[in-house]
Amino acid sequence: MATMRAVRKLRPAEGFELAEIPVPQPKAGELLVKVRAASVCGTDIHIYKWEPPWSQGRYVPPKTMGHEVCGEVVQAGPGVRGFQEGDSVSAESHIYDATCSQCLRGNQHICEKLQFFSIDTDGFWAEYAIIPQQNAWKNPPSLPPEIATLQESMGNSVYTVEEGQVKDKFVAIFGLGPTGLFATGIAKALGATAVAVVGGSDTHLQIAKRMGADAVVNRHQRDPVQAIKELTNDKGADVVLEMSGAPQAIQQALESVRPVGRVCALGLPTQPVTLDLSKLVVLKDLTFRGIYGRRIWDTWKTTSRLLQEGLDISPVITHRLPLARFQEGIRAMMQGESGKVILLP
């Protein structure tokens, strides 16, 4: 076990490579895990393509990629408590210092010195990986690794839906990447009366139906705002979840929510967005809630509970690939027709 295979960003240019590197050794407070499943995120694609903001000006190769994982503990470093060999664990991808003013307020997810796996330190697209005990979440033994690795991504959606206060509400979701697809099932599980989704891919719209969507709107075929108005007797949605970050979708989300409604925005625009704030927010007396990451560890508790209560997120998985075939997963994501891509070392 002296060396292992890992998918690495080796140079400041487009692409990743499969490399042979030493197996890491756990230091004090760290777990060495054998990776059972890892998954691909949109941030990984930005780094692959060498796009800002996570690449140029921030990212310093070489590093092992990936920040979503399920692994089996094979060795615990000195001082580790509460974990033992054989435990199934996942990782909270936000590496927080636990001492800054935000952490002391319980906002570790927006730590003032926040770092990330695969961006500031090695990630999890490898046969073995290190997880600090502080970032390790113990999974139920019955949770399949390909589901356990998705909890980090799913947690973004859980946090967004919870802040939407969706129980007994008509919910509209803009953006059907994995976070929007997860949000569809989560909203239903948390008591939404109906969920309408807006997307531009037939593949994603079909997955959304399997996740429980009551109505699907192809934005290339129908005006989303008009469609949601028709579904709500011209009143508008009670809650809108904006999961894409696309400027047009943000505009339409605000147009399609009812007065005194609620909009939660998880999507990150890649450029400044111009809006008529008076008309779309102030005069409608809206609550506009920005969402970042997951609350540590409250969101994880809700995510784990939903999965144990039977929420099935497997329809979101469209690709299961050996680690060596990671390029196929990257291509599928870049084509925009995939859900979650799972890598199996």
Report the average pLDDT across residues. Answer: 96
CATH homologous superfamily caption of the largest domain: Medium-chain alcohol dehydrogenases, catalytic domain
CATH fold call of the largest domain: Quinone Oxidoreductase, Chain A, domain 1
The top-level CATH class of the largest domain is Alpha Beta
Main β-sheet description: 7 strands, mixed
Radius of gyration: 20 Å
Return residue spans where pLDDT drops below 50 for at least 5 consecutive residues: none
Give the CATH architecture of the largest domain: Alpha-Beta Complex
Distance between the termini: 14 Å
Shape: globular
What's the order of the H and E elements? EEEHEEEEHEEEHHEHEHEHEHEHEHEHE
Summarize the structure.
By secondary structure, the protein is α/β, with parallel strands linked by helices. The chain has two domains: 180 residues, Quinone Oxidoreductase, Chain A, domain 1; 136 residues, Rossmann fold (3-Layer(aba) Sandwich). It contains eleven helices and 18 strands.
Descriptive report:
The chain folds into two domains: 3-150 and 313-344, Quinone Oxidoreductase, Chain A, domain 1, CATH 3.90.180.10; 155-290, NAD(P)-binding Rossmann-like Domain (Rossmann fold, 3-Layer(aba) Sandwich), CATH 3.40.50. 27% of the residues lie in helices and 28% in strands. It is built from eleven helices and 18 strands. The mean pLDDT is 96.
